[in-house]
Write a structure and sequence with these properties.
Structural class: alpha/beta
Strand content: 5-15%
Order of helices and strands: EHEHEHEHHEHH
Number of helices: 7
Distance between the termini: 60 Å
Radius of gyration: 18 Å
Largest sheet: 5 strands, parallel
Number of domains: 2
Shape: globular
Oligomer: single chain
Number of strands: 5
CATH topology of the largest domain: Rossmann fold
Helix content: 40-55%
Length: about 140
Amino acid sequence: MGVQMMRDITVMVTASGAPGAPGIIKSLRLNSERKIRIVTTDMNPESYGLFVAEKGYVVPPGASTEYIPRMLEIAEKEEVDVLLPLSTYELMPLSKNKAKFERIGTKVMVSDPKPLEIAINKGKLYEFLRKKYLHLMPSWSIA
């Protein structure tokens, strides 16, 4: 049996001006598994990531009502396989709309809304951990 080649994919990286974006984009390019076409988005037209991808788009902020429709439009046009969000502000809107992206063939790399709501709120996360894992919490953190 020979080595099976994996198909090329398109990955959309959001918030491409975020501090971690250069490293993530570089890592995607350096993979030896398959060719990855990179599409980026950011709300800042001067964002680093918009200039180093095969295609870059300026988008509204994650909290905007125009954000999801614009992201769906780009994902469909660019035939995005995987959407990788880098901004906390985009996580919940993307999470709540994952099914819309999946209908056009795009997998959004974000948790479902309920666990995400806990994970992105320090107070809720602490309370969740305190209730579920009290025995694992450091003694200084137990109220």
